[in-house]
Protein 1
Amino acid sequence: MSFLELKKVTKIYPNGTKAVHETSMNVENGEFMVFVGPSGCGKSTLLRMIAGLEDITEGNINLDGILINKVDPSERDVAMVFQNYALYPHMNVYNNLAYGLKNRGISKEDIEKKVNEAAKLLQISEYLQRKPSMLSGGQRQRVAMGRAIVRSPKIFLFDEPLSNLDAKLRIQMRLEIKKLQQKVGVTSIFVTHDQVEAMTLADRLAVINNGLIEQLGTPIEIYNNPKSMFVAGFIGSPQMNFLEGELKNKTLTSEGFEINNVTSDFNGPVILGIRPEHMSQTDKGLINLSVDLVEQLGSDNLIYGEIKNKKDFCFRCPGSQIIKKGSKLSLNINDNNYYVFDKSNGNRVN
Amino acid sequence: MIRYFSSNFSHLILLIGIFIMIIPVWLIFASSTHTASIINTQGLQFFLGDKFLENYTKVLLYEGGFFKEITALKMFLNSFLMATGVAFLSVISSLMTAYVLVYFRVKYATLLFWIIFITILVPLELRIFPTYSVMSTLNLVNSYWGLIIPISASAIATLFFRQFYKTIPDELLESAKLDGANTWRFFIDFLVPLSKTMIVAMFIFMFVFGYNQYLWPILVTSSEQYWTVVMGLKMMSGSIVNKFAFVIMSMIPPVLIIIVLQKYFIKGIFQDK
Ligand SMILES: Nc1ncnc2c1ncn2[C@@H]1O[C@H](COP(=O)(O)OP(=O)(O)OP(=O)(O)O)[C@@H](O)[C@H]1O
Ligand SMILES: [Mg+2]
């Protein structure tokens, strides 16, 4: 039996919004699971049902072998880090961390020990006497994490905890969260709509769309083997290029080129997906790109251009290569790294 | 430059306002330190006389009323008990009412709130006879509880607390819940400390409100023992200087409570933390 089990969990809000549809999944002990998906897809709702902050309309949730559908949030032994931190404004940092322990009737000495340990781990020992309003965004973030860690709960839930931080701090905190989780080893679920965050943090990733899990797997699995056009477009940055085409007898025709021996028996209109990083320049390549725009990131160049009817086609090459606006490139797809999707429903067919 | 000028100008207007309000009070105070004959022959005095101690001690210890059962000191005690009781009870009751209205899944909570709020349109004076009959059924006529209870539920204070609770983000409740706080703990550990300044402000409002009651105490007490200061102002016999002295003294408790609590009071009204 898994540590956390969701069985056909459904959420319908009182106003009729169906936010989560019959979702089933398992999270193993110590695993770092990430929910990723566009805004409004139901990530927070799912997380809040696990925390007990929303009622479960249908289905079951088991945590550590116990059915928790009807267990009060205060008894579930889960900790949550909110997007806006939700620190207790009238308590100093020490009491913010200690409050949950006090409610569990832990002795004063033990509380002090645990709080000091957590504070040390998060490097907030100096701020223990300050009120949250006297801390910077990053420090508040740490206090929020500390409040979760100090209780050693069964599971950590993070709802977009990094989205209020600036870009640099985000990357730093991302790293720290990952390190911390590995050190503490507590099962965690992390919600984000940032796919880079998702890829870097996750042991496993659930890509959610419209209240459904589109795909569940390790980040690399999902990157290499997206099951649908939605997942393919969502994971990977810059985004995968999508071209219209027609597949007939294992031959794919698209935007002025043909691919033979496609490993698919599908016949009909398709979408061809190619990742910008899966192409390279050759003399007589498949794809002819006329360059409109070059974004130089230093390590890489992102080349945007036109192939036949498709605008803003993206190609990624090393930053050392110098490519000018207006030039024409000839590209090949590396190692048959392309994806074919059924145009009618977006499902992968190759 | 314009701001500087306009701020000086508004200060000037404020100063004028303060003078208009203070001068009559000063006249009464200054007059209360003279002998009655000076006031009777020369009118109100602008400068202090030398009878301060004499006039004020006389008022404090003078046994007034028809049955000579009441002193000014006792009236102050009565008023203080009544005002504090009203302030305490109405703050507690409105804190809790607002808590229930905002945080509990009460059906038609908004409607209920507006029903409570409408009671502002029906002040005690309008429903004074039914209220009296309730108090007399409960045997509370001529008692401190009789003075306090009918005015110790405040729709205004409920409104203030409710609006304040509504500004508290839901995440606070949620993370408190996950930290193991139950209904009662959330109230005591979060809402009460967070609304501390507003509690103080409401306490002052209700204290002054209770202190200023006149019609209700007259009705519900027949024994002179329960006379309050405001009733005493009307009933007071004796010379004019003593009346003046009593008027001045009657102003002290509300002013004192505002001075003591003013730093919270101002914060509470303007809600900056
Ligand atoms: N209290 C509510 N009542 C009714 N509908 C709601 C409620 N909360 C959320 N929804 C709806 O449920 C759907 C899922 O919302 P949810 O908050 O889970 O999205 P999300 O994936 O977390 O999005 P975001 O990335 O923007 O936070 C949305 O369509 C939203 O409008
Ligand atoms: Mg969300």
Note: The interface with chain A takes residues 169, 171-172, 174-182, 185, 189-190, 193-194, 273 of chain B (CB under 8 Å).
Protein 2
Amino acid sequence: MQQEHICFEVKGLTKVYGHGSAEVRALRGVDARIYDGEIIVLLGPSGSGKSTLLNILGGLDSATDGHVLYHGQDLTTMSEKELTSYRRNNIGFVFQNYNLMPGLTAEENVALVTEIAANPLSAPEALDMVGLGDRIRHFPSELSGGEQQRVAIARAIAKRPSVLFCDEPTGALDSKTSLKVLNALNTVVEELGTTMLMVTHHRGIAPMADRVLNFRDGTIEKEVVNEARVQPEDIHL
Amino acid sequence: MRVSRLITLLTPLDRKLVRDLGRMWGQVLAVSLVIGCGVAIYVMMHGTLASLQDTLTAYYNRYAMADAWAPARRAPLQVVDHLGEIQGVRLVEGRISVAGILDMPDEAEPVRAKVISIPDIRSMRINRLYLKKGRLPERGTEEVVIADDFAEAYDLQIGDRISATLYGVKRSLKVSGVALAPEFIYAIAPGEMIPDARRYAIMWMGYSALAHAYDMDGAFNEAVFLLERGASVPDVLDQIDLQLDRYGGVGAYHREDQLSDEFLQSELTQLRTLGGLLPPIFLGVAAFLLNMVVTRIVEQEREQIGLIKAFGYRPSTIVWHYLRFAGMIVLIGVLGGWYVGYRMGGGLAAIYQDFYKFPILLFDPGQSIYIRAGLFALIAGVLGVVLAVRKTISLRPAVAMAPPAPTDYSKIGHFASHARWMDQGLRLIVRHIARWPGRSALTCLGVSMGMAIMIGAQSGKDAIDRMIDMQFELVSREDITVAFTEKQDPVILNELMAMDGVVRVEPFLASSATIRLGYRERHQGITGVVQEADLNVLIDQFDHAVNPAPRGLTLSESLAGALQANLGDYVTVDFRDGLRRTIDMPVLKIVPTYLGTPAYMDLGAMMDVLQEGKRVSGAYLMVDANKQDQLYSKLKEMPTVAAVSTKASARRSMTKSMDETMGTMTFFNTLFASLIAVGVVFSGARISFYERRREIASLRVLGFTVAEVNVVLLGELALLTFLALPLGAFLGYQLALYIHANLSSELFRVPTMVEHDTFAFAATVIVIASVLSAAVIARQVAKLNLVEALKTRE
Ligand SMILES: Nc1ncnc2c1ncn2[C@@H]1O[C@H](COP(=O)(O)OP(=O)(O)OP(=O)(O)O)[C@@H](O)[C@H]1O
Ligand SMILES: [Mg+2]
């Protein structure tokens, strides 16, 4: 593959929390290359460093050592301001616990992002994509967990991000609802051609991805390349 | 390391306590600061007042402040022995007390002097002098001991000479010493309302020299008394009056009616009122703030509380936990407050002692003041916590532990949904306020209370300033007051009018008198004034000029109050001048006054009553400002003129005196009030940041810049602050009303007045505090660890 199609180039990425006896090495020299438009699933035991990697790639946390190049630009040397604009222009996040603004309706939560993005989808459009076109006037407290998560997805993709990070997006949901959420994710990623990195504990989700990275003790222990992505409908959780 | 070792020794709840204190040190300190200010101001005020009172008592005792004074015209010295035989009199001294005029080199106005004799041989036993410098006058010489403030006002040294006119004869007096006297802590010239050391001097001269100068050999004209403990004061005074009547006694009076003491007591009462009013209010604000902080912490921890209850902890254990949390905050505040209050109280007491010129200084607030301050703070703290915890503690564990459901905003409907012009940020602000109306209202109320106490603290001085303005602009409109040595025929008015620079002349007639109604009596001068006066004007409650009743008496409200006299009541008046008649007179008018307790009559009616023919005691003058100085010199030369006083200098010294007493206290009160206001604003901002950390982190993750997040978070603060300003102004005004109602005393009627500047100052402090808090919060937003904030649950 060619240089310009590389989305992330991760080299020797290390993250150490605390120091002295309280030191925790969350990442121990991770090397990886992620291409534009790929769907990557990160698997691994609890505490192996998946979230840490995601947070650093997403510009939420800083690395202790090593480099992360996003389309050739080094995130590890960026200022807080540059990281903010990096997140603002390129990145979408979906977390396990939705993180919606309780004070805004579904539509307004999405609008929160469309107002600051350069070339966004409209809020109703984004909500349509996740199958919530009819719930746009509801407050988060009036939506189920799965619906809230889909609003969070709509909010994440409304700015047409080039990368979407999902940290256990279905972690709090039952399998039926999980499938709905995965479907929503898949739809938008396919439609927008977004690169997606998803952390999950469900091995069953792995076939959705182009590649699966297995984490252990802060490094990538194993990489599995799938021949073809499987649609969420065909997944068994 | 050591800290963590220590922590392992504690129970889990103790550890939570220690960590909570560490985690929330910003709020903890802000609340402690507010409590500390309340405690400090309590200790400072009450400590200062207690010390002033103790010092005064000690001063009076040590220097034998008289219990009673009895002026007369001239009595032979043998009468002193008779006076000593009156039952209830412990000690009596006869002395000469006379008026003189001094010609001070760099003072255009003539300076009035009161010269008092001191025994030639034995030492003084009543109203003893505290000799600061030099020595007592040598027998038979024209040496004088002068009052300290007079010495200071003219920078007079031992050995300096003062040129004086005593009994019409020019003399050169030599300063042999400088002294303080308990009876002249406030030296107020007759007819004046305030002390002015540049224009009124107290001095002491040896008896033989003074008697010689005033032709009083073998006689005295004033007796001073120490009374037996438990003596019946009115009876003793009656006996004294009876004895002195044939020697021209003008009425004996008790210490309560002695001008210096009365003035001092009234000022101490004012300080006590201010000192008594504000600390409880300050502590109340502190309790409120503590309640607000604890309520919100508890609300955030309801899940944890549910969990702890589920484990089987008793509710009382949990209440106790929060009580200890608040207890720590209170403890920090109380300790700090004690220390600061003690230090500042000592400083403040020293300022007052210096102002009042007490020769001794006692500063010991006494343990009870500390204990009371601490107790008040503790009660405030406990109250704050119990109210805060009550609701959450009664929740069932399951409810308290229910998932952190997103705050239900649907209750407020789609409020603000249709306002298309609103962006999501503004919507978040408005909805957040609307969703938590109670919390927003409390924040708003807290800030307004902070503002209100600043206004309240400052308003006492505003009112006094206003009182001075009213007195000198509405009532005393004259430029100069001239008092004659003896009553004069009114033709002298033409003479005054003919002087260069005199624009208008208005005569008055004055007589000292005792006014009685039932068993109440007051020694009070009565002034005869003209109808349609332009210079010294009576006013009604709307500050409009009114005339004195053509017959009968016109009383000031304050005097009518003291005598409990109503319109139409007949009072008995003993005139001490002229034919010394005793007459029953009706009270026909009652007028408000700002200063003093005056009584008035119509000038003509008073002439008729005194039966001395047409006579006037003095005149008010309006003069051409450019010619004022020349006029002084000329007036000084006139043999018939005893005293000249100008309104400008009277006003200046009154303002100065008020600035030094009320001003000092106001300064400290305002300082503490401002600190409290800052504390309230800061904790409000801080806690709302704390509550919304997660929401802020989410916004930041979505790519909002720090500035954009701040708009949402601080926009709310700004909006609430903005709403708090008018509310604070309103509450402050109410507080001022309350304070003013309590500040009025017999000597002063305090009008309600809050200067625009006071409002502006309070509003400015609030705005600055908000801006600074906003800056601190903005920094925390920038530093917020997004990953951590998102991990913690809402
Ligand atoms: N703020 C922190 N301070 C100290 N250690 C941390 C911190 N955040 C994470 N760690 C540690 O870093 C390691 C990696 O954490 P990370 O959250 O990346 O794990 P994970 O793979 O996402 O686990 P899980 O599947 O449970 O979410 C863990 O050992 C964790 O204890
Ligand atoms: Mg994780």
Note: The first strand of chain A starts at residue 6 and ends at 17.
Protein 3
Amino acid sequence: MNQPTSLLDGWIQENNKLVNRSKGREDHVPTRDQHTGPCSADFHKLLLKIQGIPPLADHMQLELTVTYNTCVCFTAQSHFSEAELLLKQATERVLHMTVDDHDASNPLVLWRKVLESAGSVPLKEYVLFLLCLQWAIWLATCQLKTIQEFKDELFSLVETFSSAIGGDRRSEAGSSDSPLLLLDPRWLSEHLRICTAIAQGAERLSEGWSSEALSDLQTASSLSAPRTLLAYTHLLSGSCLAQMSRPQMALQCYRKALETDSQCVSALYQSTLIYRQMGNTQAEIQALRLLHSTLMFPHTTEPTLPGTHLLSPAFLLCSQSLSSLLSVPSALSVLHSLALKCVLHGRLSEGVEYYLDLLAALHSENQHAVHVEVPPLPRLPKLYLEAGAALLMARLPADCMALCDEVSSSTVELLPEMVVLEEQEDRCEAETGACAEDEDRVQILLWATAAYLLQGHCYTHMRDWKQAITHYTRCINLLVMVRFKKTGFPPQIPNADMVTKKGTHLCTLQRLKGLSLAGRGISFTQTSQLREALRDLQLSLQALPECVGAGLWCGEVLWRLGRRLEAAACWEKTWSRTTQSSEESLSIYLHEPQTGPLLDSSELRRRIQELGHPSPAQE
Amino acid sequence: MEGRCAVETWAEFRSSGSTCPQRLVYTHGTDVFLCTGDDEVYVFCSERRKVTTVLKFPGPLNDLYGTNEKTPLYAACSNGVYCVCLQSLLSRPQNLSADASTSPAELQISSESLVVPVEGVLSLLPIGSLLVTLSLRDTFWTLTLYSSSKQSEPFQVLGSFSLPVVSGVSHHETEGKTRMKRRPMLIYVCSGDSTPLSSSPTSLDANGHISHFSLEPVLFKLLFGVDAALAKSPVILCGLPDGRLCFLPLRPLGSGLRVLHSLEQSVIFIGASSFLETSGHAQCLVALGEQGRVVQIKVNKAGPEGGRNTAGFTEGCVPGPVMCSCIDKNYLYYSTGSDLLVLDLSEGSNGRKKDEETCNKMVAALQNPSSLNVCRVNTLVELKNTTAGEVQLLSLSVGGQLQRITVPVRKDDGTLSNVPSTQVGKGIRDLLSAIGDVCERASDLKSAIKSKNQILMHLNQVLNISFLLTANSDKHLLVQEKLFRCHAMTSWSRLLQKDFLNLTCVLDNSSPYVLEQGWTLSITVSPLAHSPSAGRERSSTNFSFPFQNLLPGETLEVSLPLTAAADTSFPITVSCSIIFSLSSLLEEEAAKLHGLQSRCISLPLNTLTVDWLQALQVDCSKPTSQFDNTNNAIQAFIDSRRIRCSRRGEVGGESTPKSEPEKYSATVRVSSELLKETLLLKNCDSDPHPNVCLSLLDWLLSEQHEGVKRGQQGDKTAVSNSVIYARGPNGHTIKLTATEGNLKVENTGKEESLTTVEVQIESSSLAAVCGLHHAVLHRVQTLLLTAPDRAASTKSVQSLALRRTLQQAEHLLQQIQQHRISEGFSVGVSRGQMTGPLLRVYRELRENPLLIV
């Protein structure tokens, strides 16, 4: 161009060129950093040039536009302090132009002053753009308190933008003589409004102010916003209601969230938690199944509007309390709980299917990495054992044995010769090297024993008593290698008197011992080795007094040995215990087998009654 | 002496000096893939012993991976990972290489084979349908898994794992600069009882050995856990340049990248060896560090009396530095650059017992490699194990030679086998050639040392001189006291009907050092201020004069054209500096020094200013005619017409056209007392009754000022008239008048009179008047500096006048600023309208000349 252009025009053109370039590039470049990196530097350079001259009204619009664009880039790159500095400088320059003296160091005071002084100036609109960005920075850095303090101004900002007839500025923005904006501030302000409502709701919810949060969230849910964000408002309302112990209403809200956005998996997950709380197992299983299929379904990403990818809602909503509310376990975790639920609640064939699906998924090449998962998926051997137990319950002992074989063969070479189990309370929870290794050693031993136990159960089920006895014996031999150590005392063989807490290794150990001894005792009974049977069953009762099978069979052996009164007492004692409920929290492979030879309780009672009539004098 | 290695050179490749590592990949078929460190991959056919194809990638390659002709070749380029299917590429464009039999086909790899568009991938490893890449992001090693459903389709990210970089790993000091070139090493291992993932039973890694090992199941479980073993998962092993060995089981994902061991030096190589012939699995993992640290990881078997299996780490140290390595069953081959060595891993390992003795034996074995006497090996690949027991290795030498190294059969006792007598002759020949090699290498090294010494001496001298100069500049020495300085003289010459102003510049070496070869005198000529019409950029011209030896006390005289007549951009700044070019001295060393920002040392000497006075052509008397030649007359005529026309257009024809162009003038008043004290004191002996006016003019025109002197040509007679006519560089006549007179000065109420000399400058050219005014003022300023201190009694400060003048000046400054800003924003306003006010401001500025006392 030969025509010498004025600086103002030149700067406008440079700005527009940068905006168009960044908009043109947004489709190709995958990551955000690479995208805005050079752009922000370019914008900043341009801004420095413009700020080289004193603030005057005729070029202030351009300057504020470039400040806005630069700050959008900086914010999108999470360079918040740089962006805030620029905003501060810009407001100060505006103040310089309108009022002469100002001495505000507090950003809020500064903003109020600028809004006040720019009220009459045509720059007002541009100052509001910058305020919009400041809002975004506050939100992205979780300064919800500041936003709350500045609520009125921000609200009037949204009002101003929405009352302005849409498209008046934007339509003429295509021409080259007005500076272009990198991101539509109206779009941004609307997003900020709902995102603020969501973030505040989550914050209040985590602080326990459910009812206050609820009202805000419900007003937010009537705003016009993308489906994803609206679904979040419903979801959070549901969580508020759940906290206020109104599960049915909470479920309603979750349903609304799902209707709004079918990809809102957190709503599904939260519903399963509510169902679990309410004890509605069938519904819980149903919801888990739905959740799993949704998670497996390929994620369809919503097409983003052009120019809006820079400050996405995900970028603005980063508070800890919200992300913990939105977190959903991985598909594999969901599948595991689904399988476990099915097995525990009698839907055996389904449960087995799910377990097999889970194992297949774990063996497939294309599994997605999940970084932090709470609660984590159980270790692989444990999953194998659970699946094996499910298969056995479904009366598929051959498959169960195959799984157990894998576990035992993979652990057999690593078995320690002796393990000392320290008292749980004193165990350091930190994952130090030695501790983790010790822990691993104990777990390997417990997995191997459980595998033998299940194999024993399988043989019992197939009435191969000899094999069953072999496997139970292997199991018992491993178990006796464990010594229990209380701090200050020498290691000793654990017994049932020790206080056993649920979920500890000691508890597992005692259960394994009781079950394996009971199993061997029952097998001995079947091969008519009554003496051995009685010894094992009594030892079993010692280790695990609540073992029903051991109690009943112990009575039976006593009866066969002619010790009828002792037998009757034994039976009575067993019946008097109500223990079934405690099994719920244990791994399913530690449950008492329901597949072995059974004794008919009514038959036993009849025997006791017969015993009672002819010989009351004997007692 | 045992049998020796036979080295056979297959081909020679250009070895680029770039920083990218050389890569060599041997595939199971006949092809060898080679990358010598740039963006090209050569496909070398080992059967035909020639390069068949050249693949050209869009950028330098970091890593290369291929298994055989059927599977695709993966290449980590600077802008992403490319996946190239050679067969389909070669079959498609048959027309491309018509004479395929003679010259290699050249294939340009386009972006359509870009499968992972992520920058900065350092290493890659395909496992089945997965692709593993390792890159360095900020301070994190990032391992990323990709999967693809179909080939040549963009891969999708499955997950990524990162590990913070550990700093502070000791590096060999000479190796420091090559550190960044080290590429992380990636391999994967499977448990021996699980089925391998890839289609081929073994595949070869870029560094030349089987990249997929099947490890003894016990060792696998001990190292990588029960979960990985149960899931039959392959485990990715990576050796990082910060010395750590990390692993990641592929299934179940999510356990994260964990550290297995740390060598505390850059990991060069990871491999597995199987010294027991009975089982098909490898019994131990070996890792080799840059400085020769070896770690061997094996199972410590449970004894018969009890105990359990544990993983045993045995560390040793071999003489380094290690350039590359490869493994063959139980022998680890590695190159230090000056020798190829072999390490027997089986020694001491066969003992089943876990006692002190075997342990010591193992450590000892790890420390005693035996030499194979092959030097300059850069990259190593195992080629094959012949039936006779010979091992063939493929290597790429430092000089870019592709060589096949045949290692003779080893006997069980670990010594090399005796060669049959028929081969003794051949052995001696080999030996002699090896001696020749070593001799050549030694003489190479000797000459290298010599030249380095010379360079060091040279550098020392340069350092001395730079120190001298920088120390000078610190102390603000006067120009006269500088050890290196420049002074200059102007002179007019006439060439091709045009007048040229020449500058003769003299570099004076009064230091005790010799300016040796490699120094260059650089003179930059640039106008101090530039006129806006001349162009936006500041036009400066650079002259450099390389010289041989400038001994102490010698001078170097160079002459350069300063400007042609009619170029009015005075005053001109002449910056002198001496430059030493390091690149000419260091040559290839400089190329290696990445930290060196510029290859030159530039030392500024002093800056000279050529002003209007020095550019004057003086005619002592009144000019005979206004314009002394026709050429100029026409020029002046055109100029005057133009001025008139423009003036008419500007003022709107209001004023009558003048016959003569407007005269501009400026005056400088200096008190004669000052002049007498300074100027006349110097040469009072020559003239008892000096004329102040004449001596002032004489001084102005002929005295050296700031190192520049006006050359006298023809007019060297002393100034005899107080009116001087001269021609400026733009051809305009200039009249310089010096008159002595009395000036009444109003000083705090009462009037005083003061004798002053008034220098008046008159010309029709505004530029000339301004320039000369500036020059004269500048001279007088320096005069004031040299003036002896006078008592404050002479004159009190003209405070009132001064204040008024200051106010005026401030006002004018404001006006100028306003004009400048409005100029920036206005397009419509014409330049004429702009300059009008500025000119007015300027005149106002000069209206009331200050009296210099």
Note: Chain A is about 65% helix and 0% strand.
